Amino acid sequence: MDQNKQGEAAEGGNIGHPAHGKNQEEQSNPMIAPTNPPKKKSLEEQLNDFWAAQREEAKMTTNFKTHSLPLSRIKKIIKTDKDVKMISAETPVVFAKACEMFIKELTIRAWANTEARKGKILSQRDLVSAISQTASFDFLDDIMPKDAGLPRTSIASTENAYLNMPPQQNVAGLPYDAPTMAFPNLNHHAPN
Amino acid sequence: MEDESHNNILPNGFNTGSTESPCLKTSTMTTQHNNNNNHQNHSNKEQDRFLPIANVGRIMKKVIPPNGKISKDAKETVQECVSEFISFVTGEASDKCQREKRKTINGDDVIWAITTLGFEDYVEPLKTYLQKYKEIEGEKLNIPKQLRSEQRLHQHQQNHNNNHDENNNQPFNGAYASSNLISQPPYVPTDQKFSLPFSPNSIQNQLRQQEQIDSVGHWYE
């Protein structure tokens, strides 16, 4: 938690780089050795570049008919809350933009974990680690599956999380070892 | 999208079903391909609960290196995370509306909720995005904009759109009064005696008038 707060403070103070620099940095990421201090700094720089790019992108948007996410589906998810009565036309539009940024931020943080374990495929455990390391993602803890091979207490600590991810785990489509799944839906997806 | 927005404004709710057939079709194909599931009910339910996995996957690929790959379970996990994010923010925005005794959740409520829930970095892009949306939609849809403005006024919300000044084309009723009066020449006496006041004839006439007056006075006595 403290690390997250420090990271956020650093983010606030730093000035973002242009998107082009961001792309170069992303390409050079695989070359960086998997050590904690450089990785954090690299992740912070990526996020700063990301948010700077988002601010610029929002200013240049002129077409609101094409969204990266379907508004009708967003409406249905909003409607699952029974307390919600009516929403204005702009609400799903704002949500579409917010969800896009949410997916991107989550993916950037997860990919940092993929690189830390020298992996080439972003997997669920990378997401679980990213979520445990980010304060604003605490609301997702309840829906995250508990992996027997990766106890939750270890997830809370970044260093321990890395220790529990040896290089030989670089295998695609890791099977679910846990007999019980916190989220029934995932259990159904497992056979597929 | 435009039709959808239009439908959404008039009823002031979203009882209307989805009108994006192409998207749903794509979603159905994606779901079937991923789940390899023959239960249509389950597929429909899956569609309603999550955003399409294809859309989610495309967005994820934008922020990882070109040679990077994303596992299927990761995409599915993000699908669930996004739905949770929407519900999380919606709950906060809905609570705010209830406290303020308003029925409709608008864009500003969503942005407020996102700020409250710790996603500060999202706020500036979203405010810019919403402002742009209002400007463009306001120009495109004149009539729905008026309805939207009325809703906002009814909800005691400040309207940021530039109101288009209406020109009052009232007919000019100028009263035209024409004077038909004809100027008449001054009265010119035709009696020549009056034109010569000091002539002897004139004096005699005056005396006669005095006599008449005396006669009248005698009659009263």
What is the structure about, briefly put?
Chain B: Residues 26-41 have a biased composition (Low complexity). The complex is a heterodimer of chains A (192) and B (221). By secondary structure, chain A is mainly α.
Give structural notes:
Chain B: Residues 26-41 have a biased composition (Low complexity). Chain B: InterPro entries: CBFA_NFYB_domain, Histone-fold, Transc_fact_NFYB/HAP3, Transcrpt_fac_NFYB/HAP3_CS. The complex is a heterodimer of chains A (192) and B (221). Chain A has 192 residues and is an all-alpha fold. Chain A contains nine helices and two strands. Chain A has helices at residues 2-13, 19-28, 36-60, 71-79, 90-116, 124-133, 152-155, 158-163, 184-189, and strands at residues 86-87, 121-122. Chain A is globular and about 45 Å long. The two termini of chain A are 36 Å apart. Mean pLDDT of chain A is 67; it is low at 1-36 and 148-192. Chain B is mostly helical. Chain B has a single domain, classed as Orthogonal Bundle (Histone, subunit A). In chain B, α2 packs across α3, α4 packs across α5 (72-99) and α6 runs antiparallel to α7 (120-140). Classes of the chains: A mainly alpha (192), B mainly alpha (221). At the A-B interface, α3, α4, β1, α5 and β2 of A face α1, α2, α3, α4 and β1 of B. β1 (86-87) of chain A pairs parallel with β2 (104-105) of chain B, so a sheet runs across the interface.
